[in-house]
Specification:
By secondary structure, this protein is α/β, with parallel strands linked by helices. The protein has a single domain, classed as 3-Layer(aba) Sandwich (Rossmann fold). It has an 8-stranded mixed β-sheet with strand order 1-2-4-3-5-6-7-8, sandwiched between helices. The protein is globular and about 40 Å long. It starts with a strand and ends with a helix. The relative contact order is 0.14.
Length: 225
Amino acid sequence: MTMVNFATNGHQTDGYLAVPASGSGPGVLVLQEWWGLVDHIKAVCDRLAEAGFTALAPDMYHGDCTTDPDEAGRLMMALDVPKVAADLRGAIEYLRGHEACGSARVATLGFCLGGQLALYGACESEGAVGACVDFYGVHPNIQPDVSQLDCPVLGLFAEKDGFVTAEVVAGLSERLVAAGKSHDFKTYAGVDHAFFNDSRPDVYDAEAAADAWSRTVAFLNANLS
């Protein structure tokens, strides 16, 4: 588990890399919530490494992170969509080319902002992504073109989510169906947005998080083997 630096879109990007004890495993790109590349996201990478995957979390804010919701919203909305697409492609290619990546195609997995980036990155990857896991993904300006998707999607959502409402989830499902794309969606009853984040006791739900993790690992193993 270490910080790394790699080229994306004509500049250098930092990231957190976690490698399984075996020395290699299928690659998973882990994409941050709106807070930035914080300890919780690094811990997700560590858990993936313990499960046998090589996980990379790129710093999509290039050095910024926060615990303030207003600042997090500002950072999220300041993202430049074409630059984000290039950064995602660069991170995917770095991960695919890393000696510890044991799969030809990698997965994208993200939470909140990162959930939307995971889907967006999968759509922009030109076949380099073999699985996508979207935990309650949201960003008003980042709209994935699901017609370009070349992998199945696992979507994990919260019933009480004020950002990713039931209508939003249904709309995404309808778009995927219309495009003929394979997807499996699960909405957890009685839980809030960010229910997976165990660093936030105000919203964390241990039972839902455990089930979501089990589904995620099974999905990644099924599609990256």
